[in-house]
Amino acid sequence: xxxxxxxxxxxxxxxxxxxxxxxxxxxxxxxxxxxxxxxxxxxxxxxxxxxxxxxxxxxxxxxxxxxxxxxxxxxxxxxxxxxxxxxxxxxxxxxxxxxxxxxxxxxxxxxxxxxxxxxxxxxxxxxxxxxxxxxxxxxxxxxxxxxxxxxxxxxxxxxxxxxxxxxxxxxxxxxxxxxxxxxxxxxxxxxxxxxxxxxxxxxxxxxxxxxxxxxxxxxxxxxxxxxxxxxxxxxxxxxxxxxxxxxxxxxxxxxxxxxxxxxxxxxxxxxxxxxxxxxxxxxxxxxxxxxxxxxxxxxxxxxxxxxxxxxxxxxxxxxxxxxxxxxxxxxxxxxxxxxxxxxxxxxxxxxxxxxxxxxxxxxxxxxxxxxxxxxxxxxxxxxxxxxxxxxxxxxxxxxxxxxxxxxxxxxxxxxxxxxxxxxxxxxxxxxxxxxxxxxxxxxxxxxxxxxxxxxxxxxxxxxxxxxxxxxxxxxxxxxxxxxxxxxxxxxxxxxxxxxxxxxxxxxxxxxxxxxxxxxxxxxxxxxxxxxxxxxxxxxxxxxxxxxxxxxxxxxxxxxxxxxxxxxxxxxxxxxxxxxxxxxxxxxxxxxxxxxxxxxxxxxxxxxxxxxxxxxxxxxxxxxxxxxxxxxxxxxxxxxxxxxxxxxxxxxxxxxxxxxxxxxxxxxxxx
Length: 670
Fold this sequence. Notes:
The structure is a single chain. By secondary structure, the chain is mainly β. It has three domains: 32-109, Immunoglobulin-like (Sandwich), CATH 2.60.40.10; 142-243, TonB-dependent receptor, plug domain (Ferric Hydroxamate Uptake Protein, Chain A, domain 1, Beta Complex), CATH 2.170.130.10; 251-343 and 355-669, Beta Barrel (Maltoporin, Chain A). The protein is 5% helix and 54% strand. It contains five helices and 40 strands. The strands form seven sheets. The chain has a 20-stranded mixed β-sheet that branches. Strands 9-15-16-13-14 form a five-stranded mixed β-sheet. Keywords: Cell outer membrane, Ion transport, Iron, Iron transport, Membrane, Receptor, Signal, TonB box, Transmembrane, Transmembrane beta strand, Transport. Residues 353-640 form the TonB-dependent receptor-like beta-barrel domain.
């Protein structure tokens, strides 16, 4: 029995009420003036860590990672605003502020045409990166965003000598490791999640993900279908990989990593301005990885090449194209599942030799993939810009997967051989505006999205291939090999299917400044999903063809208690999953509606000590409705009345920091 909830402060309705009361009690802020802007170089690059000072007020700030700065709660009057950066000429402008006015003052800094007088050395490495336009598809700071997210920059990957994608997510609270079948799966807020998004758009593939081309990782918490759809996200959130981009300075880096279990890894990062004056830049990342296993068999070899091309056509148009070419050959990772009756309380009590692999090095799987990404960014006007994205991913799976089941004192060895191909493509068009409406700032994105996934599967399953002893000596332990497996699989019939699905979507998201420090977000997506079903080549039949249309809203409020330092936020977010029809045992065809997940969340965000301390404290509640489940009253029938709840409180729940609590967890610390 759950103990009663005593702290109503964390009820989402209570948080929204507090936000309104705080707003009403701070009317004086409404009359305060503000200055914000962006600082760029002569080449159009946004410049972080530029010092901006404001005379009279004696205030000084630094631009963030996007080159943005802001001064808030200013009095009306005359000021001189200056931008200063090491190696660049200082720029100053004189401005006059009126009561309640928010003025935009941008700078373009030119480099000094002389040798620097000195060198500045700093021992502080800024890992607390929190800003990203891809999270909300808008120029929105973390303290202005009502959604919880984490950013892991490449500096952390380098500092920790991370060589596998699974280790990257250990830096994110509330993310736990799932099964690793040569690819990557995780659990977020109680729901399984796969990393299928690169640069805000699809990159759906089955092979392991390489870290050599990662600029940073963005992890959004909670249902995020409103902006990113349901095909690439889960009810727990999404993971977005942002790749490295070319820049206008020739630079190269080569590294070699030597580790345990015969690890040998070589990486290279080479940036080459092809025609610098014409804005044609190129960058290439390469990685070769060769690693053994702590067990008596098993290895992984992979080669990764990622060329990237950036062309600044003019001051308005930028075109970027990049590719990730990947080849992996490896043994399937070791899986040993308990089946039937099982009474052991821990893995140690089994008394198993954990170095036994149960299959050999010649049962391998090859997973090649090619991902192409292209973006055209066009500045339509001073307040509007267009972004066109295209991404295509092709990958294959050829070889053997083995999973083992403990059956009392024996182990069943099961084998799946596959020779399958997959292709995914997504086209997305976004129009983004940053403008004022009746004296209030609006940041708006309107988008169209098309996603298509096609699979051609050809596989055989030996279930089981054989059974051997769990403990002690068993001569049959080494009888599994490519030759014996191929001979056994030749006696079975392969399964061949072709399937295809498409999604057509339109969405918008608007962030409206009620006051300078009080923001409201409203977002909506309409999504039409069409499945062509699965075509069985042997039976010459198509099954599972269906279509569904769904609306996905998102709402949020943010109030900055202390501008750019502390903000209160609350959100309502939606996610959904399409459900295909079912043929019931009596022959009837039952049509189902999508399952929907609804999240309420409220909390506090901190950005203190000049950005060195970032933290989020939040309470969330996710409820999933209309889940399919077996009918308990009619054997073999499927009904749609299931539900699932995931929240920041309750007995034995996962909070955002990833730790389990036996009793009540009132708030979850990020």
